[in-house]
Specification:
Blueprint: H1 5-8, H2 12-33, H3 35-43, H4 65-70, E1 84-89, E2 99-103, H5 104-119, E3 128-131, H6 139-150, E4 154-156, H7 163-173, E5 177-180, H8 182-194, E6 206-210, H9 216-226, E7 229-236, E8 241-247, E9 254-256, E10 261-266, E11 279-286, E12 297-306, E13 318-319, E14 324-325, E15 330-332, E16 335-337, H10 339-346, E17 352-363, E18 366-375, H11 384-402, E19 407-411, E20 426-428
Parallel strand pairs: 3-4, 3-5, 5-6, 6-7, 17-20, 18-19
Antiparallel strand pairs: 1-2, 7-8, 8-9, 9-13, 10-11, 11-12, 12-13, 12-14, 15-16, 17-18
Helix pairs in contact: 2-3, 5-6, 8-9, 10-11
The structure holds 5'-O-[hydroxy(phenylacetyl)phosphoryl]adenosine (DLL).
């Protein structure tokens, strides 16, 4: 199930030659068309003709989210508005959103990237797929939409929310594929179990989940609930949205569409480029994007890139599942904690439901972490000894994985918030005097 064998299984030397050719073009394009890039490159003493090898990319300065905000809305666009055919924006929680534009050729490339990812895990003309990402300024829904249409799937553009109706369509249309965030896929499965229809009325076989992290433990839970096979796909709006990388059937890393992206891994503190195989912050350069070309964009996402060929036959490099975002990483009493570490402990314990929240507080001079998690059986709260033993077991496990003590609060089933888009698991109350 390889959509574009010529590219996806290309010899690495040929792929790198293609990347270099495109990188040279991209550097020239940015230098000529985007004033901010021109200025930055001048200041760094690098001109496009200095790019002779792929590693010469290191001479080009990084681009950050703040650069998009500072040039809001269209300052980093590489094409005039008459050539822009689509505009999306990120769902930033503070300040102005970051706005991205696509030319016709960008949209074609986007569909191609998505087609590779979805076809590679079995989506084709026999697929009936419900897209439960929010349609709108978010890149997720339309990105998957066009890629799935390209491979011939019947696309049901449900959007997120309206969950009861979503389930009705699933039953009535015999939908066999779901596109959603892992947290929404999980929520829908719980709702389906409660909705009074037998699970045999649902026919989901494939979950194309992405846009937020999902530990293997959480993935197993979603797979069990729906009886479907789940794969992960990754991207970010600034570099074009979903389609940057996705798992194949091996699920041993997310294959990067390297003919469209050049990826590096850096030390997030020093900005130094790390050796292949090291874990650090992913930095992405777009190689064909005209609407909003990105040079060395700092994603803040923590991962590792594996350049070994995959068992599936593809030669494209694979990135590990995102470990977390460097800005989501919690520093608690000097120790780095990723919410995904907590998730890996909680999800999979049979007494616990898959819903949790991390609350960080400052008490006196010390930071504290409270982990709230739902019980499957609320009755445990009445059975003192059992409750104590469970508390202790979770706290011990958390301590051994995180290296710090966390307070565990067990709650009744269905008391923590559910999410239709990306889940918000962390409540950081430090700085609010709480
Ligand atoms: O979430 C694009 C996307 C849509 C990807 C649908 C996949 C599927 P943004 O809203 O700009 O774009 O958010 C990008 O989300 O920097 C990561 O921190 C996180 N993220 C995206 N995909 C994954 C994933 C879209 N598969 C930010 N695993 C990124 C973990 C992810 N985190």
């Amino acid at each position: 199930m390889i959509w574009n064998k010529e590219i996806e299984c290309m010899r690495r030397a040929d792929l790198e030659a293609l990347q270099l050719e495109r990188l040279k073009w991209m550097a020239r394009f940015c230098y000529d068309r985007v004033p901010l890039y021109h200025k930055r490159m001048e200041e760094a003493g690098v001109t496009p003709d200095k790019i002779k090898t792929l590693s010469d990319i290191r001479h080009i300065p990084f681009t950050n989210k703040s650069d998009l905000r500072d040039t809001y809305p269209f300052g980093l666009f590489g094409a005039p508005l008459k050539d822009i055919v689509r505009i999306h924006a990120s769902s930033g929680t503070t300040g102005k959103p970051t706005v991205v534009g696509y030319t016709k050729s960008d949209l074609d490339n986007w569909s191609e990237m998505m087609a590779r990812i979805v076809y590679g895990v079995g989506a084709n003309e026999d697929t009936i797929v419900q897209i439960a990402f929010g349609y709108g300024m978010f890149t997720g829904a339309l990105g998957l939409h066009y890629g799935l249409e390209k491979v011939g799937a019947a696309v049901v553009p449900c959007s997120s929310g309206n969950s009861e109706k979503q389930l009705m369509f699933m039953r009535d249309f015999q939908t066999n594929c779901l596109v959603a965030t892992p947290s929404y896929a999980l929520y829908l499965s719980e709702l389906a179990k409660e909705s009074g229809y037998p699970m045999s009325d649902y026919h989901l076989r494939l979950g194309l989940l992405g846009s937020e992290g999902c530990t293997p433990e959480m993935r197993d839970q979603i797979e069990r609930n729906w009886g479907m096979f789940v794969t992960d796909n990754y991207g970010l709006s600034e570099t074009g949205g979903p389609g940057m990388s996705g798992e194949c059937m091996e699920r041993d890393g997310l294959h990067i569409n390297e003919d469209f992206y050049l990826c590096e891994v850096i030390d997030p503190d020093t900005g130094e480029v790390l050796e292949p195989g090291s874990t650090g912050e992913l930095v992405v350069t777009t190689l064909t994007k005209e609407g909003i070309p990105m040079l060395r964009y700092r994603t803040k996402d923590i991962t590792r890139i594996n350049y070994e060929p995959c068992k599936c036959g593809r030669t494209t490099a694979r990135m590990d599942k995102i470990k977390g975002r460097s800005d989501d990483m919690l520093k608690i009493r000097g120790v780095n904690v990723f919410p995904s570490q907590v998730e890996s402990v909680l999800v999979g314990m049979e007494e616990l439901g898959p819903h949790y929240q991390l609350v960080v507080r400052r008490e006196g001079y010390a930071d504290t972490l409270e982990v709230k998690v739902e019980l499957i059986d609320g009755g445990v709260l009445e059975r003192y000894q059992e409750l104590e033993a469970l508390h202790r077991r979770i706290e011990d496990k958390l301590k051994s994985v995180l290296g710090i003590v966390a307070k565990v609060s067990l709650t009744q089933p269905k008391t923590l918030e559910r999410f239709q888009g990306k889940a918000k698991r962390v409540l950081d109350l430090r700085g609010e005097g709480k």
